[in-house]
Recover the amino acids of this structure.
């Protein structure tokens, strides 16, 4: 996992839950593209979306150049 991908998880001391998410193929491909455009793994990108929707804060470092 890239260092940047860990940003959503830094500072978390609690256990994390893993679960399977089923997406239609076309939605999966679009989500992967959106995550790549944001320079994130798909998992990190999905975590940021869920956090935003449930009202959590997200701490993202400045983009590495």
């Amino acid at each position: 996992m890239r260092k940047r991908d860990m940003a959503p998880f830094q500072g978390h001391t609690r256990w994390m839950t893993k679960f399977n998410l089923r997406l239609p193929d076309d939605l999966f491909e679009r989500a992967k593209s959106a995550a790549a455009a944001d320079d994130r793994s798909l998992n990190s990108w999905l975590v940021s979306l869920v956090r935003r929707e449930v009202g959590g804060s997200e701490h993202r470092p400045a983009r590495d150049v």
Q: What stands out?
A: The helical segments are 25-37, 42-54. The chain has two helices and no strands. The chain has a mean pLDDT of 79. The CA atoms of residues 24 and 30 lie 10 Å apart.
